[in-house]
Specification:
- By secondary structure, this protein is mainly beta.
- It folds into two domains: 1-71, SH3 type barrels, CATH 2.30.30.30; 73-102, no CATH class.
- It has no helices and ten strands.
- The protein has strands at 8-11, 20-27, 32-35, 40-45, 55-60, 63-64, 68-71, 78-79, 82-85, 91-94.
- A hairpin with an 8-residue loop joins strand 1 (8-11) and strand 2 (20-27).
- It starts with 7 loop residues before the first strand and ends in an 8-residue tail after the last strand.
- The structure holds zinc ion.
Amino acid sequence: MKIKKGDTVKITSGNDKGKTGKVIRAFGNAGKIVVEGVNIRKKHVRPKRQGQKGEIVRIPAPFLVSRAMLLCPKCGKLIRPGMILHEDSVKVRICKKCSAEI
Ligand SMILES: [Zn+2]
């Protein structure tokens, strides 16, 4: 997967279209990511003790990475990153617009 934890992405489809946020989790196998403030699900939490109130917590749920595009930290453009292989066979991710390693 070309998007990883710590990246900043922009949502390109669905209810959260147009939002930007930081990737807080990435599930490579499932092709899904969790982004701060995006795809919020409400979860009811039952009171743990008597006399305590139950509450609703809002947690961001995973969604398909194809619904987001990466924001290049160097040039600030929306990109689909490319991968190149260095001579020492280390894979690096690059921005196709400004050619920076990101
Ligand atoms: Zn760039």
